[in-house]
Amino acid sequence: MRLRLGMHQRRRLVLTSFFLSRGSPQKDRKRSDQMDEMQEPRIGHADRQGLELQELTNAMVRLYKELFGRGPTKARTNYAGPDTLVATIENSLTAAERKMLELDEHQRVREIRMFFQHASEAEFTGTVEEITGRKVWAFVSGMDTHRDVASEVFYLEPVASV
User: Fold this and answer.
1) Is CATH 3.20.20 correct for 8-17+45-156?
2) Are 55 and 72 in contact (CB under 8 A)?
3) What is the pTM of this model?
């Protein structure tokens, strides 16, 4: 049975794991059993963004595995500016796609991948929106079949200034 957690439950679990991995508290800080009231752990923007990017990368790997039948062996996600996410996926070609490439059918493999990406757009954009809490206004996908490198680019609506 697979447990499905909501966005806030996953973030809380990730944050809890993150802080448990940091070791024991410093001497001058109160231990958790000495705290007067329940306090939320505080993390900086860079840590929060790093956790978000890791969650996005894991989600892309999972989607590739579910949608294409094979997950990549290497993946990473980065911000390219404040409102653009780029997921780089490596070594994701299926056995059938590799066989087609042996027959020099690169264009056909790219077309099939593009078709599947278009058909699965809602899954990709919905996942990114759930994790980031931001609306995706454009999604672009591409692949270099010679190097087995794919990219998923998500354009996010800008965050309103306060």
Assistant:
1) no
2) no
3) 0.71
